[in-house]
Amino acid sequence: MLPIAMNCLAISSIFGTILVYGLSQIYERVMQDFIKPLAAANAAPTVKSKWLTKDRFWNFVFWFGMSFGFAITFSVSSKQQAKYSLGTIFIWATMIGVPLLVRHFSKTTCVKDNIFLNSEGDLITEEQTPKSTFLALLAGVGLAFIVAETILPKGYNNFFLEMVFFLSVFSGISLYFIYKNCPISILFNLKYWELRSTERRKSSGNDDHHAKYTKSCRHRMNSPVYQNLPQNVHYRHR
Questions:
Q1: Domain containing 81: what range?
Q2: How many whole angstroms separate alpha carbon 111 and alpha carbon 123?
Q3: What is the domain count for the chain?
Q4: Residue 127: C-alpha distances to residues 79, 111, 123, 130, 216 (Å)
Q5: What is the C-alpha to C-alpha distance for residues 145 and 140, in angstroms, rounded to an integer?
């Protein structure tokens, strides 16, 4: 009986060793398959979003395009009065061509009330939405006035000096949209201005005033209390 027990013990120890070895190999394989992707992900360099986005690029195009067009218009017009027609061509080409070009390549789309997408299909967030456009424009005009009074020589008619002046004029609104990372082409979207107009009416309370006035008029027209008024439905000639 003792030899049989010893044989059984030996066989059990062998199977136990094989089982432990097999489980350890499976554990190591599973851990390697699980840890390697995590290690690779941690070791991979983080991808930073680029600062010069498509929207910012076309905001720069608007800034320099408008400045260049106005500068060449005034520099050409100041040479000879006979060339005013050429200056007119330049000014109209600038005021129409540059906005159309920027709008075409960085077009914004209104998908829902107060929800806009840029040309790449990305959402224009609330933080990106321009809310001080007029103030930014005034800041640019103020900067141009300071530059003209303190830096530029009086009576200048040089193209490069004109360029400096108009770069200052359009700097406020352009840098504002560049900072916000919002396409300036949203200003050429009619839906944007409709929504802004609606927001102004709501904020000023005109809609509530109009609703109250309409309700009061209807009450006067339908209530028997005001039957002495000609516009009342219960009015009778006496």
A1: 54-189
A2: 10
A3: 1
A4: 46, 18, 11, 8, 40
A5: 9
In this predicted model, what pLDDT tens digit does every residue of 140-179 receive, in sequence order? 999 999 998 888 887 667 888 889 999 999 999 999 999 9
Tokens 């001080």 found at = 132
Burial of 117 (0-12, 13-18, 19+ CB in 10 A): middle
Which residues neighbour 142 within 8 Å (Cβ) at sequence distance 6 or greater? 172
Bridge partner residues of 115 (DSSP): 112
- pLDDT tens-digit series, residues 204-228: 655 455 555 555 556 556 666 555 6
In a domain, 149, yes or no: yes
Q: Which residues of 86-110 are buried (b: 16+ CB within 10 A; e: fewer)?
A: ebeebbeebeeebbeebbeebbbeb
Cα→Cα distances 38→44, 46, 77, 100, Å: 10, 14, 66, 48
In the structure encoding, which two tokens stand for residue 187, read together? 């200003």
- The reply to whether 49 falls in a domain is no
CB of 111 closer than 8 Å to CB of 117: yes
pTM > 0.85: no
Asked whether residue 146 is domain-assigned, the answer is yes
DSSP alpha helices (H): ranges in 78-205?
84-105, 133-150, 159-169, 171-180, 190-204
Residue type, 2: L
39 located within any domain: no
Task: Give the contacts of 109 (CB within 8 A, at least 6 positions apart).
Answer: 116, 117
